[in-house]
Amino acid sequence: MGLQQYWGKRDFKLTHEPRGKVEKSGRQLAFYIQKHDARRLHYDFRLELQGTLKSWAVPKGPSLDPNDKRLAVEVEDHPVEYGTFEGDIPKGQYGAGHVMLWDKGTWEAIGDPVEGYRQGALKFRLNGVKLRGKWALVRMKAKPGEKDNQPNWLLIKEKDEEARHGPEAQITETATASVSLIQDDGPALESVDGDLAMEAAPTKQMPDLIKPQLATLVTQAPQGDQWFSEIKYDGYRALARIEHGDVKIYSRNGNDWTNKWKNLAGALAKLPVESAWLDGEVVAFDEEGGISFQALQTSFKLGNEADLAYFIFDLPYLNGHDLTKQPLKQRKLLLQTLLESQGKQGPLHFSEHLEGHASEVLKHACMHGLEGIVVKHAESPYQQRRSSDWLKVKCGQRQEFVVAGYTDPSGRREEFGALLLGVYDEEGMLQYAGRVGTGFNQGSLRLIASQFKTLHINNPAFANPPTGRDALGAHWLKPTLVAEVKFAEWTSAGRIRHASFVGLRDDKAARHVTHETAQPTERLAGSGEGVKNSSQSSPSPVEVANIRISHPSKTLFTDGGFTKLDLARYYESVANWILPYLKDRPLSIVRCPEGYDQHCFFQKHVSLDSKSHLKAVNINTSDKNSEYFSANNLSAVIELVQLGVLELHAWGSRSPKTHLADKMIFDLDPAPGLSWGNVTEAALLLHGLLEELELRSFVKTTGGKGLHIEIPIKPEHSWEVVKEFTHGIARHLQTHAPDRFTTNLSKKKRDGLIFIDYLRNSAGATAVVPYSTRAKAFAPVATPLDWDEVGPEVQADTFNIGNVMTRLENMESDPWKDYLQTKQRLSAKLLQMFT
DNA sequence: GCGGCTA
DNA sequence: TAGCCGCAACGCACG
DNA sequence: CGTGCG
Q: For helices A719-736 and A676-692, what crossing angle results, to 10°?
């Protein structure tokens, strides 16, 4: 204990490293991780304990995967002051090379840390920028003969919600920036100034004004983990400039609105930064606690900003450093740390984001009545203009219009009837765009009408003023008011339909109001990862597995935005997983050439030309022969994709012995209203029964509502025998739990029962193939599960073509790895028991 | 998506 | 030759 | 026997 070893190794005349001293106890314990590019790159992991930093050199750095155990070689204690050191240690000195502060924060021991350290089993929780949650350091036994002055430990992530698997866990790869610019409000441990190394974050004078980065309106959310989805806040864009406690808040046009938002300015002044530019949206909460544009305007009027909040989503400058060239994910990481240092109360909020799955996020956002989402590319710099790295996807249509007139009220309506709206065209002419007469309340009617007085003019400002019935009782206004209106669609005549008033805006100049048109997403979102769009809008065939794919960019799944090429690429990537379950099985297919939500049809006979990779299968029934087909290789599967096949259903027997079942299958189908818990409970019950019968069974999601349980068997019984057996099993369950199960197809609707469909066990009957897509929203995939996974986490439609590959790549082993090797038979005894 | 039939 | 149409099938349960 | 349903 102590720093003698530390001091002994260094010549403080030659190195900038701090000399340091043993700190007094009684404050929060700090931890630091320094990325040290010495003779060998390694990470120095340091925990403050008893006044010094216990230190370990971790060659491979920390991993968020609890399965990764990282060697941590204990080294001499360092002074606490050393933790923030960044800079170069001169050649010839101990540890020569560059030191970068990779993470910092506080830690708390789980149990007694001193005792834990002594015993060689230290469990603790980290609260840093990059590392969070539970961790453990475990000392290994010294090998005999090994020098024991450098004990080896293992640094292990404990299982918790901060744990990750696969590529996500490699945080040293994904989070590479220095955390030195993040101020902590702990004790003033002066950073020893090496070269303050935030690569490519040059120190420069903070600009007086910055222009907000704007998002491009698109119709579809982009796919891929590299896109971050944020809520599209329904408020006012606001950029805040902080310099030594002096705060200014600017609107998106650069108007100084600090005085309107004194509370926010006050809160911003308390942030632990020397200087910063923050970008976000000011919103108001309505009575129900929801975010409300109208409430925001009311607060303006009344000068009451008690319920205002500032949702901050970007940080272009910090402490004199220009972060605009840094990737968004780094800026948000810094921002999050900065804001969380303030606790959860107060009007300043971090605008959270979700990574990937943007179209699903959009769906949820819309269901919750939000305006839409903003999707931002994780690697993009901050650009002071409209760019395609920020995309906005709206739930309904909604945009601003110039108010250039109004009509007289009728009936009991006060003030006015409807607003006459317009947008400027490319020539700068104000085009009439229709009217909005609903969505107002008493307050907004009066508020708006009060603004009319000074704006009356004699002639319409429209280039094409409404005429006839539309112009009845119209009064013309100078086109300065801007109203936000939601509506269903634009008509071909350039009018809006089903318009409803949302609010007046005064952060946007009327002359900038134009007809917003959404861009097709694929052209803009091409850099997304994962399933990619082909990016051609005109038909331009591509080849997958030597099969020509026509119209590769045709969208087959509107909600997920998955195209025909996406589908082909999906099957290409799961080829090794799906082909074993297709081999020699006659297929039925579901084809939806125009997309899953358009006309779909079943097919079990296809015309096979000489070039086809599909294999003909002749089934000779007593009366006539008929030709079915199977897909035994990838090209055959892709051929089906080209035909618009969205579902693959296979027989439970293989050619040539198609008359003998080689699997049994139970389809657990919940009645409407049943919870997922009912389904999993039923599956586990059936699993238990099968175990008792010593039958190995395998479970998969269907991509629809239920689960499939498959039991591979030796092909030796006819379909009649197997069906009777499965019927017997189903009847058994129904008899023993009539409150949960039914085997009756038409009574299925009745009550809240799980229908055990055993009818798939007959000649010619089919079930969806493992890893087949389903013709449903978001391209769900029927996915094999481990029995351990049967529970609330995984639902029937959890996996889709956007996430199945990630699952497969990260799995320790195939949950169905024994399926193909399972050799089991239905013994005479079993058959007797259940028939 | 495409082959086959019809007009 | 353009346009339209079909593209599965079978057992069960109910009325 | 037709029809709804998987």
A: 120
